[in-house]
Amino acid sequence: MEDIYNCDETALFWQLEPSKTLAQCPVIGTKKSKNRVTILLTCNATGKDKLKPLFIHKYKNPHPLCDLSIEDSVQYYWNKTAWMQQSIWLDYLKNLNKLMCLHYKKILLLVDNAPTYGKEYELPSFSNIEIFYLPPNTTAYLQPLDQGIINFFKAKYRKLLVENRVEAYELSQQLNIPITYYNSECY
Q1: Helix, coil or strand: residue 43
Q2: In the chain, how long is the greatest CA-to-CA distance?
Q3: CA distances from 29 to 16, 18, 126 (A)
Q4: pTM of the model as a whole
Q5: Per DSSP, what are the bridge partners of residue 9?
Q6: SS3 of residue 65 by DSSP
Q7: Could you read off the pLDDT of 49-63 as tens digits, one per residue?
Q8: CA dist 138 to 16, 38, 101, 170, Å?
Q9: How far apart are CA 141 and CA 154, in angstroms?
Q10: What angle is formed at CA 120 by the lines to CA 114 and CA 123, rounded to 5 degrees?
Q11: Domain boundaries, the chain
């Protein structure tokens, strides 16, 4: 079980705030953000080994990430649509194979049958990865990532997003000091 891995990709609408609020009536003037990224998560069947996520964005150097060092936490790729492409998949497999060679592991990688993953591509015979393509309409039952790991990941992200927005709102309320306060204190 330690050597059976599963990877699955998901879209994350990273600016999409919750659709439900505490308001009693509809909130007018709010538009849902459609900014998305693609994330590929990989873990083994026991859940002990969670690999760095693969992160695909629309821009090579996105402004929100310019001050962060993301190479340590994710494998970053970019393209115009922020979708998985065969070139990204092949590079991911190459990097995964290097990682497994470093750890002296031979693994079975379960993937769904998406056309991007290219069944016609064969790994070299000396590869430490054997890919098994799951049959159509069975991926939700056989993939651990579809059994709730991706949902948990998205729920945790949403929680952090809401906490961030609440904190930003509270900070803006604290900084909203009337101008008369400054005049009386300064003179």
Answers
A1: strand
A2: 80
A3: 15, 15, 58
A4: 0.77
A5: 40
A6: helix
A7: 999 999 998 888 877
A8: 29, 22, 30, 46
A9: 19
A10: 105
A11: 4-20+31-186
